[in-house]
Amino acid sequence: MDARLSEQLLIKLGPLQDGTMRSLLMRRVLNVMILALVMMVLPGLAMGQEDSSSSDVTYAPRVIDGASSDTSASENSSGADDAQSRIVVRSQKKKKEFNDKIVVLQRKPFMRRNRVELAPMFYGGINDSLLFQVGVAGQINYHILEWLYVGVYGGWQDWRMTDRDVNGLSETYNDVVDATDAVPTTSIVDGYLGGIVGFVPIYGKFSLFGTSIIHWDLSLGIGGGAVITRANDFVGAGLISVDHRWYVLKWLSINVGVKGWIYYEDIEAYKGVFTHWQAGVGVGFWLPPSWTYKSEW
User: Fold this and answer.
1) Which of 251, 216, 223, 250 is nearest to 237 (CA)?
2) How many CA atoms lie within 13 A of 89 on its CB side?
3) Cα–Cα distance between 175 and 183 in angstroms, integer?
4) What is the dihedral of CA 92, 96, 102, 108, to 10 degrees?
5) b or e along 4-24 (b: 16 or more beta carbons within 10 Å of the residue's beta carbon)?
6) ω before 288 within 30° of 0 (cis)?
7) What three-state secondary structure class fits 209?
8) What is the DSSP letter of 127?
9) Could you read off the pLDDT of 172-209 as tens digits, one per residue?
10) Treating both helix axes as pointing N-terminal to C-terminal, what angle do 2-12 and 19-101 enclose, rounded to 10 degrees?
11) How confident is the model at residue 224 (pLDDT cuts 50, 70, 90)?
12) DSSP label at 131?
């Protein structure tokens, strides 16, 4: 385009052979060429600006990508926290299940199995207001198992041999005789002897003033034997026993018990079933005085 324009200008200005006109023509041609070059460069600059603007736009996703990466990082962090929390919950659940399956076996501080108990006691009658009898008794038990034992029980409560006034009769008895001039019909037991089979259904412990722990048990027994009455001497009888023990040492216990004798007797004009209940307190000596634990696992 520039070449054609220069040729046309040369044709039109051909007659002008003057050096001044020729220099003027050259300046015009040069200006036209500069203008053409400027026109050619401007579109390139515009495209460069568009490219730079587009490049700026393309950088925006990078920023977004960075934000998304931060978001993904936070999501990954929260996911890791969730996974960690799930692991903690799972471990706590397993720990609870494991603790539920744990069985703690505590050694008993007092053992009864294969031991002999020697239990002297003082007893007194509690069911007949016409009688006042205090006696001594003793029981020998062999404990086959921790909860099962067999024993022999006997006692004596007639002290007339030492004092004739100690006849086992209460002041109420004498008052009735004085008031009615009649002798009340009652059965007086002077002694007793029998065998017993017992078991220990309850075993426990309690704290004494927060300083020590005392173990105890409750035993029930049933048996039979004979009572010695003043009217008929030996009379067959059944025996019921309830005993409560506090274990103080490995070889010593404090015992509290209730014994009941049930028997049939013929007293003059009266025939029937009588009962003789007595309550007492004593101690228990245990042999052997110590033991060794045996594991069955």
Assistant:
1) 223
2) 6
3) 11
4) 110
5) eebeeeeeeeeeeeeeeeeee
6) yes
7) coil
8) S
9) 988 988 898 888 888 999 999 999 999 999 999 888 78
10) 170
11) very high
12) B
